[in-house]
Specification:
Layout lengths: L17 H8 L7 E6 L14 H6 L1 H4 L4 E3 L6 E3 L2 E6 L5 E6 L19 H12 L13 H5 L6 E8 L2 E6 L6 H5 L9 H9 L5 H4 L7 E7 L3 E6 L12 E6 L3 H10 L4 E2 L7 H6 L3 E7 L2 E7 L9 H9 L3 H7 L5 E3 L22 H10 L6 E6 L11 H14 L2 E6 L3 H9 L5 E7 L6 H8 L2 H5 L9 H12 L3 H18 L2 E14 L24
Parallel strand pairs: 1-10, 1-11, 15-16, 15-17
Antiparallel strand pairs: 2-3, 4-5, 5-7, 6-7, 8-9, 9-10, 12-18, 13-17, 13-18, 14-18
Length: about 550
C-alpha cells in the first residue's frame, strides 16, 4: 500500500502503515520504535547485487556486517567481524582474525546451528568470484565486485582455521582494506544459503535476509514499509531502540510533513527549499556536511550522436550549471567540474570546465553533422538522491538548454529499481545519475563509474572505456605512496574532461533532518543512515 494519507491523530499511528503497522507492533509501541522516512524501495536485500544507497540503507546497513567497517561519520577503518588483521610486507596478502561467538539472526524459516566462522567468509566471496556459480536470484550481477574488477585483484581466499582467513592478491592493491569495508563485502550465512538451496528455494535469502547486523529482518511490503527489530545477540551490543521501521515515502514534501507531525523521526534527503523551515523548527535538528558525492549526466558513447566527442563537448557547453545549482540545489552545493568532489584527495583544481556557451555549442553540433531538431532520450532520476534533490526539475532545465542548441530531449524515467536495471544493459541514450563515495578513496569514484570493467558490471552507465584513463587509474591502485597516486588521478581527470563522457553537474551539501527526541544520531560520511547507536525516550 502507498504510504500517504492524512496526518495522524496520534503521531505514531497514522499513515506509516496503518493497521498493518499496528498488527506488527502491538504491545511493542510501549517499546522504542524509530520510524525512518526513506526515499525509495530497495532493489533487494542481498548487498552483493546492488550499488545504490537506497538498497544499502535497507540491507547491508541494518542487517549485515563486514570484516572491517567504517567508523560512523568517517572513513576510518575499524574492526567488524574481524577483530584484527595483518598485511604482508609485499602487499600481496591480508590475514584476518575473526571474531569469536558472533551470532546470526534467526527467522521462522531458519535457525542457525553454529556461530559465524571462516566458512561464511569463503562462501560470501567465492560466490562472487566464480562466474560459473548460479545466481540465487536470476538476472542479477555482482555489480560492485565486477565494476571494481575484484576478480583481477583477489587470487583466492583461504581458510587458515575456523577463525582465520587469508586473502591472497594477484597484485598490490592500495585501496584493498577500504574496499573490504564496503557494502558488497557483507558476510552472508553459508548455512542459510545451503539450506534454502537444498529445499529448492535458493532465492529466499535474497528476499528474507539473515545476517549478523544490529537489526534482524521482520517483513517488507513492497513500496510501502520495511520492518526490523533489534537483534538481542548482536556482537556489538543490542541497539537501544526496539523496533526500526522504514516508511518508504518517495515525495520529499510528504517526508517533511511526516517529520513535522512526528510520524517519522528521521527523513532522507530533504528538498533544499525546505531547509530553512527545518532550521527554524524547534522540534528538528538539521545535521549537515559537504557531501562526498557528484551528480552528473552520462552520455552512452555506444549510441549516436553521443559516440562523437565533439557532440558530448557541445552539450556540456549547452548546459547552464549555475542555473541548475540555483534552481535545483538552492545554492546548497557547488558546480562540479571533475568526477570527484574537491573534499577528496587527488582532486585536480587545474582542470578547466566547459564554459556555458550555447552559441559555440550550436556551431559545434552543426560542424559534427548533427541536424537541428535531432531527438534524444534523457533519463531522469525518479527518486531524491543525496547528489540530486529533484531529478525532474533538473531534467526540465537541461531539456530547455538543449532545445536552444537544436537538440530535442525526450524526458524518460522509470521506477528506481527498473531505472537501475535498464541502465546496466545500456538501453539509455543519456541519463542522470550520481554517486556518493563509499570509502574515502578516489578509486571508489573512478573505477566503478568510469572504468572499463564497470561497463560490464553496469556501474559505468556512459559505457566509456578509454585506454589512457584506464592505465592511469589502474596504475594508481598499485602504488602505495599517496602523492604518486594523486598525480595519476589528476591526469585521469584531465582525460575525462577532454573526452566528456559526462556532464559533471554538482557536488551537494547533505542534510539529515532528525527530530530532537532522537539522540545519538551521527551523519555518515558515505551517505548511509545508521540507527544502531540512536536512542529515544521511553514511552
Amino acid at each position: 500500500m502507498k504510504l500517504r494519507g492524512h496526518p495522524p491523530a496520534k503521531p505514531m499511528l497514522g499513515t506509516v502503515a496503518g493497521a498493518t503497522l499496528l498488527a506488527f507492533a502491538g504491545a511493542s509501541f510501549a517499546a522504542k520504535t524509530l520510524v525512518y522516512c526513506s526515499e525509495g524501495s530497495p532493489e533487494g536485500f542481498n548487498p552483493q547485487y546492488y550499488t545504490t544507497g537506497t538498497t544499502a540503507d535497507a540491507s547491508s546497513v541494518p542487517l549485515y556486517n563486514r570484516l572491517v567497517e567504517f567508523e560512523t561519520g568517517t572513513t576510518t577503518i575499524v574492526p567488524g567481524l574481524a577483530e584484527s588483521w595483518t598485511a604482508a610486507a609485499d602487499g600481496l596478502s591480508y590475514t584476518f582474525k575473526l571474531r569469536k561467538g558472533v551470532k546470526f539472526h534467526s527467522s521462522a524459516k531458519f535457525t542457525p546451528t553454529r556461530d559465524f566462522n571462516a566458512d561464511d567468509v569463503l562462501f560470501s566471496f567465492n560466490r562472487m568470484a566464480d562466474p560459473a556459480a548460479p545466481k540465487t536470484t536470476p538476472g542479477t550481477t555482482y555489480a560492485y565486485y565486477d565494476d571494481m574488477d575484484m576478480k583481477e585483484i583477489v587470487a583466492r581466499v583461504e581458510k587458515v582455521d575456523a577463525l582465520t582467513v587469508k586473502f591472497v592478491l594477484k597484485k598490490p592493491e592500495a585501496p584493498f582494506m577500504a574496499n573490504m569495508a564496503m557494502d558488497f563485502a557483507s558476510i552472508l550465512s553459508a548455512e542459510y544459503f545451503d539450506k534454502t538451496r537444498a529445499a529448492g528455494t535458493p532465492d529466499v535469502p535474497d528476499r528474507e535476509p539473515i545476517g549478523t547486523g544490529p537489526f534482524s529482518f521482520v517483513s517488507y511490503q513492497k513500496d510501502a514499509v520495511i520492518r526490523y527489530k533489534a537483534f538481542d545477540a548482536h556482537w556489538g551490543g543490542r541497539p537501544k531502540i526496539d523496533n526500526l521501521i522504514y516508511a518508504i515515502t518517495t515525495d520529499a514534501s510528504v517526508r517533511f510533513a511526516k517529520l513535522k507531525t512526528g510520524e517519522c523521526h528521521v527523513m532522507a534527503f530533504p528538498k533544499p527549499a525546505d531547509v530553512a523551515l527545518m532550521k527554524a523548527d524547534p522540534a528538528i535538528n538539521l545535521v549537515q556536511q559537504n557531501g562526498l558525492n557528484v551528480g552528473y549526466i552520462a552520455f552512452n558513447v555506444e549510441k549516436k550522436p553521443f559516440d562523437s566527442k565533439a557532440v558530448r563537448q557541445a552539450l556540456n557547453m549547452a548546459v547552464n550549471k549555475k542555473a541548475i545549482l540555483d534552481n535545483v540545489f538552492q545554492g546548497a552545493g557547488q558546480v562540479a567540474k571533475n568526477p570527484i568532489p574537491p573534499t577528496l584527495w587527488g582532486y585536480n583544481d587545474k582542470v578547466v570546465d566547459y564554459a556555458y556557451d550555447p552559441v559555440k555549442a550550436k556551431a559545434m553540433l552543426a560542424a559534427a553533422g548533427v541536424a537541428p531538431g535531432t531527438e534524444v532520450d534523457l533519463w531522469y532520476l525518479p527518486v531524491t538522491r543525496p547528489y540530486n534533490p529533484d531529478g525532474k526539475r533538473m531534467a526540465e532545465l537541461i531539456q530547455a538548454d538543449w532545445d536552444k542548441v537544436g537538440i530535442k530531449a525526450k524526458l524518460v524515467t522509470f521506477e528506481w529499481g527498473e531505472y537501475r536495471k535498464r541502465s546496466k544493459t545500456g538501453e539509455q541514450q543519456s541519463m542522470m545519475f550520481g554517486w556518493s563515495g563509499d570509502n574515502g578513496d578516489p578509486d571508489n569514484f573512478f573505477v566503478p563509474l568510469l572504468g572499463c570493467s564497470a561497463v560490464k558490471g553496469g556501474g559505468n552507465v556512459s559505457r566509456w572505456c578509454n585506454k589512457d584513463f584506464e592505465d592511469a587509474v589502474q596504475k594508481a591502485k598499485s602504488v602505495t605512496k599517496q602523492s604518486e597516486r594523486a598525480a595519476l588521478y589528476e591526469k585521469a581527470q584531465v582525460i575525462a574532461k577532454e573526452e566528456a563522457p559526462w556532464i559533471t553537474i554538482a557536488h551537494s551539501v547533505r542534510f539529515d533532518p532528525v527530530r530532537k527526541e532522537v539522540t545519538g544520531y551521527k551523519m555518515d560520511a558515505t551517505a548511509h543512515h545508521y540507527f544502531n547507536k540512536v536512542d529515544m525516550p521511553d514511552k
